[in-house]
Structures are given as structure tokens and as C-alpha cells.
């Protein structure tokens, strides 16, 4: 087993890992932005997402209820934990642990890091 530190295009690596994964996909990610359903496009029936859908996160717009709705319609099992701050993605025997939320800013603007 090898570990790789990702500092460039973290979301490209997460999406590639999700796309190639067999079986159920899991994510514990604090915030899901307006484009979070698109970033998690390989998530579908039976996959699991835990995120922060607390009143403060929804009010601040850090978690977007419409993105959550799109994931639920696709069959993703979505759960909330109001104090969640994790960013962990699990695809089969591969885990990606880092700083990237499921948001456009994490994918395109911020300097994120992760290990897989």
C-alpha cells in the first residue's frame, strides 16, 4: 500500500478515485456547496454522505440544500452532523483524507491538500 500526498487538483483525484471504485462510496465532508452534487457525481443509490446540514451551515450557505436534494434524488443516503468538520472520502479500499469540502471554492480556488 502506498500513500500519496495530493496538493494540486485534489478534486480531480477524488473524482477519479470515485469513478474507478467498485461498491459503495462513502464521504464524511463538512460542507456541500451549490455544486457539491456535481463534484460527487459518481455517488448514487446506496452510497453514503455525512455532512453538516445544521441551521448555521444552511443559513451561511456553506451547505446548499438544493445540492443535498439532488444527491438524495439520485439515491444517496445523506446524514447530518452539526459539528462535523471532517473531509474523508472512501472508495473501496482507497481513502482520501484532507481539507477539501465538496464545493467550487475547494475545487477551484483554495489551496487544498489530501493524502490517499
Automatic annotation (TrEMBL):
Q: What is this protein called?
A: PLD phosphodiesterase domain-containing protein
Q: Which Gene3D superfamilies match?
A: Endonuclease Chain A (3.30.870.10)
Amino acid at each position: 500500500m502506498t500513500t500519496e500526498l495530493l496538493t494540486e487538483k485534489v478534486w480531480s483525484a477524488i473524482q477519479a478515485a470515485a469513478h474507478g471504485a467498485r461498491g459503495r462510496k462513502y464521504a464524511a465532508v463538512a460542507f456541500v456547496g451549490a455544486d457539491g452534487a456535481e463534484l460527487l457525481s459518481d455517488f448514487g443509490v446506496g452510497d453514503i454522505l455525512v455532512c453538516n446540514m445544521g441551521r448555521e451551515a444552511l443559513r451561511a450557505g456553506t451547505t446548499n440544500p438544493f445540492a443535498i436534494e439532488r444527491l438524495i434524488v439520485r439515491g444517496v443516503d445523506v446524514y447530518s452532523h452539526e459539528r462535523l468538520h471532517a473531509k474523508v472520502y472512501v472508495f473501496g479500499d482507497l481513502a482520501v483524507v484532507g481539507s477539501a469540502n465538496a464545493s467550487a471554492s475547494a475545487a477551484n480556488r483554495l489551496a487544498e491538500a489530501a493524502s490517499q
